[in-house]
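Weekly modeling sync, notes
Attendees: S.R. (lead), two postdocs, one rotation student

Agenda item 3: backlog of single-chain predictions. S.R. asked that every request posted to the team notebook include the full sequence so nobody has to chase files. The rotation student volunteered to paste the first one in as an example of the format we agreed on. Action items at the bottom.

Example entry:
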Amino acid sequence: MADENTLPVPPNSRAEARPTPPSGRRPGRGTRRLVRVAWVSFFIGVGLFLAYPLLVKSNFLFLFGKSPGLDELENPKVEQPSEVYTADGVLLGRYFRENRSPVPLSQMSPWLTKALIATEDARFYEHSGIDAPSLVSTIYYGLKGDKRGGSTISQQLAKNLYKTRRSENRGGLSHVPGVGVVVAKTKEWMTAVELERRYTKEEILRMYLNTVEYGSNAFGIKVAAKTFFSTSPDSLSPEQAATLIGVLNNPTAFNPRFHPVAATKRRNVVLQRLGQAGYLKPAEVAALQAKPIVLDYQVEKHVDGPDTYFRGAISQAANKWCDEHGYDLYRDGLRVYTTIDSRMQEHAEDAVGQRMKSLQQSFDNFWRNRRQNPWVDEEGNEIPDFILSQMRRTESYKSLAARYKGQPARLDSALNAKRPMKVFTWKKTDHDTTLVMSPLDSLAYYKHFLQAGMMTMDPFTGSIKAWVGGLDYRFFQYDHVRQGRRQAGSTFKPFVYLTALDNGYSPCDRIRDQRVTINYVENGQPMQWQPDNVTREYTGINMTLRSAMARSVNSVTAQLTEKVGWGKVADYAHKVGITSPLLPVPSIGLGSAGDVSVYEMVDAYATFLNSGFRSTPRLITRIEDRNGNVLQQFDPVQKRAISPETAWLMTYMLRGGMEEPGGTSQGLWDFQDLWHKDNQIGGKTGTTSNYSDGWYMGLTKDLVSGVWVGGEDRSIHFFRSQQGEGGRMALPIYGRYMETIYQDKKLTYDYGQFPKAPAGLKRKYVCYTEYEPRHRRAEAVDSISADNLLEQLNDKAAPAPTPD
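Predicted structure, as returned to the notebook:
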């Protein structure tokens, strides 16, 4: 008969306490169940313990986070700066988040490895990734509340190399307090063992020293040695090596630049460990500990290298490519090769600098003699409250206004508070000086400066060879090559003549220079426009198109625009390279129908020289990985825009600025080194109303260049003075630049003539040019787009197109 204690209790019976079985009797069913549960739990626990590494490795149910795979272990990707080079092999700069440049162990001071092992992992050569005695000691002291590091060099390498504690490598358990740390440590132990299996001790030391952070954004020993001591890793002395190894314990707290006392104490600990390990004698330790830390500190920025205007364009293009192809410009150690030629870039910067320094002096004298500031209205009167209105547009003003909202007195005080400021100046070779100024003073100071932009391109490949976006990038970040857009003045006229030539006209066709009235309709309203020549005079000569373009005659250009259609002129400008919006209005030929950039203008003019093919401007030729493998080659991209015949005729027309009587480019004759070996140059000057913008576009058989000069705002300019013409402001920059290009024998550009006329050219282009009577012939000047709109036919005033 079964024991009564084993009988089941009826479901509806009242619960009663069960008597404990007498000693020596068989345990009841409940006890046996508990025993079975205990054994099952034990075996499950043992199984989970044994399976735990596999669960971690496989990221079971996404609980543990990603662990490095076999490929990552054998080919670890250390964050490495990407480098940018010019076409002639000069390093332009480096892009990085973690600034590091790996070097082999043979190029490191032996004191580095000695100090590292003595301080961080004394049994480094004895363990296989995990130092058991150290681990037990860490746990023992941790339970007593004394935290001690027990990680081996291999474990630290695993943590730094594979970022095991980054958010993207963490799983669901990482959010459980305490558990996340255990999982992370487990991954580091497992990875350390795998590293020891695949690499020698020396390779692990090399990777470690090239991977860790040394403070001041220096990652890797090469950058650390340069940052703190301006030396190479193989030249580090024992005390310098000890300083850098000491920093590893806490790169912020022991940074010798910012915490010299703490850094010295930590360095002395490392020196003591070197002595204990037998690498230094006690007397040597004492002598080195007595030395102060002597730094030669030079921290590198996230983008290292000279400040240039084109670097932003390079970064934009390279980052776009990286996003599309799964790379990171700041991490993957890419090598980006650009089209910029460092020698041509230097010549361009020198030409801009020389001319702008001289021009600024003239500009300052001009307004000093008038006893007023250069921001003026149409009548030459100084614009009241100009600086304050400009200040209100700045981010600094918006920040101050938000801080002192409702407190105008405090806002005014902040705007007028003076303090020392480093500012730009032409008076020193390094272009900087320190003045005591308020924010308003500073803005007014900078508004006095004339600005410039210049770009040179190879028309056959689209390669940009030089790019000068302003006076000095440190002080003026606005790029006047691509960001800046201004009216082009007479440099836009060639697009009118292009439209005519591509629609049957020839350079020898004639239009009379006479006062004209052009009728048109705008917004349903009849309008009239009377364009003026700059001299307000009309020769009455029946001019050839080549002569009219060379002399930049407004009346002829306006008549030709009407004949071919102003909408068609906009279409042709866009076809050859202008990308900015253009208004299809009668004054488009005088450059007042839209704002354009130097970048666009050079692109468009290059189409003439490239037989009618438009080459997409390019800054990058190829991108390589860190091992020198070519990831992508950027070949020239070209598209037929106009016929070869029209393109050649346009280069012939542009040569007229030098060859036709009264041509506006003839100021280039003053640059005598341009005219050896029957050299030929084509070009076009341009000036907008009130002399707000001065342009010059220049072509040789090999290169196309564009130059713009003007104030930061259109109200800042010379007033009724031919000093502000493109032929005087911008043309000299081009002339000086091309002289130095020809003089530089390291470059391949030489004097020469443009290509001969293509075979089968049917249109007449060699024709007679009339000379004006001597008493009427004036010095060649730009024809400023001075527009004179008549009243509408219904006697309502017509809104004038912006003339400047």
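Discussion: group reviewed the output briefly. The mean pLDDT is 84.
Action items: rotation student to repeat for the remaining queue; S.R. to check formatting next week.
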